[in-house]
Amino acid sequence: MMASDGMLSLSWNNHKATFCHILSTLREKERYTDVTLACEGKFYPVHKLVLSTCSEYFEKMFEHTPCKHPVVVLKDIKCADMEALLSYMYDGVVSVLQQDLARLIKAAELLQIKGLAVPDEPPLKELSKKNAYPWSSRDDRSSPHPKRRRREDMMTSTSQGSSLPPPESPPSSPQHHQESNQSWDHSKSHSQDQREDGVDQRVGDPVEPAVEFSSPKQEASHNQEPVDESLVKEEVIEGSEDNQGEGMDSRIEYGGMGGGDSNTGGEEQGSKFPHQLDTKHPQPLHEAVVEALAGPSGMQGWLGTGELGGGFSMLEGYSEDGNQEVHPASTGPHGTQQSHQMVGLNGDGSRNMKRGAVGKVHLCPFCVYSTLRKDHMTKHIRTHTGEKPFTCPHCSYSAASKDNLRQHVRTHTGEKPYSCYSCPYRASHRSALQFHMLKHQSS
DNA sequence: CAGCAGGGGGCGG
DNA sequence: CGCCCCCTGCTGT
């Protein structure tokens, strides 16, 4: 940060990487997801915001789909491709086998994924002009411009008239619930199914418009010709034999997130963070998120306490009080967490507010949890940070809360504080006693 | 049964 | 306000 005339410029060094990473994490946790993509019987809860950001196709679709949580059924797109595209949209990178590239690109074009889709018809005129790409002249809202090396013109040769989603084509026959039974494995399903049809897949009628479960039939269908805003193609990872098995798994790499406090430089470091977001194995992402958030030079300001009124408590790291506080009057405990105010909201002295009264709502910066008690938030945050300050004197166990440690210690000491009043039974756990009491009741 | 997480009451500083 | 303590419910083995 630099100061000029008292004006501070606070910069969050690895903001982009952090942002993307958290987004990805949110998707894995299916948090805040507000649209479900369905293809091949699999369901992918994702975020409209992200889809809209990456695809005008989706943007327009959602624009005309007021329902809260639409389910978009994608025909003619393989779930493997869908997963790859989601990985691409969320992480900005995806690994794909060369043999699958054509199919993937085709899917990307159908969905008009920025950065992956190419302008369909290479300028009708001709390729004559080198920079004939549409985006060169457009304002371009900072959409990605990755470069895809065109290794072969496989797709362009075979599919010259291919893509462009059908302007109309309402989902006349909603075949989306067909496999509803086996389906809800919106799991991070990673279908390895290598289809043989591979390259030459029908793209004639691409994407079926949205339908949703519960809401009064929207006109979600009419996705009119979305403006073609496609960009350059993406760069494939060449010798990707190594990740064949997981070919489509999302993979993220980001720099500048090394949790160490060494990076005060302020520039993104190139240090790759080999986190492999294996969608199958959720993996302790929390820590990664925390690291990202707790970067020493990172912008903890918005996480900082509200009490600081105006002042930012940078450098104070993300510790216990790293939670935002807002007045419930202005924002409800749920639903508006996204608005991370960076200001100290309580100018007034809300000092002698009885605990639990309508004082401050403490919002967890990692999840939707909210509480009126700061000490509860402190405990809760440990569930994200993984901090377990209470260690068992008898074993290596450690707990995040003293209570839970005490509970654990009973397993060593054999203490059974819960005793049945009608028989000598004793239990070390409350719920065990309750279960035991049921027997007395039944008999 | 053990672990974990959330909520509430009480108390002292 | 922070901490201690207790209670409760859920989950996994």
TrEMBL record:
Superkingdom of the source species: Eukaryota
Pro residues compositional bias, start-end: 164-173
All copies of domain C2H2-type, residue ranges: 362-389, 390-417
One of the protein's GO biological processes: R7 cell development
Family annotation (InterPro entries): BTB/POZ_dom, Dros_DevTransReg, SKP1/BTB/POZ_sf, Znf_C2H2_sf, Znf_C2H2_type
BTB domain ranges (all copies): 33-98
GO MF terms, alphabetically ordered: zinc ion binding
GO cellular component: a single term: nucleus
Compositionally skewed regions (Basic and acidic residues) per UniProt: 185-205
Pfam families for this protein: BTB, zf-C2H2_4
Polar residues composition bias: residue spans: 215-224
Region span, Disordered: 121-282
Keywords per UniProt: Developmental protein, Differentiation, Metal-binding, Neurogenesis, Nucleus, Zinc, Zinc-finger
Annotated function: Putative transcription factor required for axon growth and guidance in the central and peripheral nervous systems. Repels CNS axons away from the midline by promoting the expression of the midline repellent sli and its receptor robo.
Protein name (database record): Uncharacterized protein
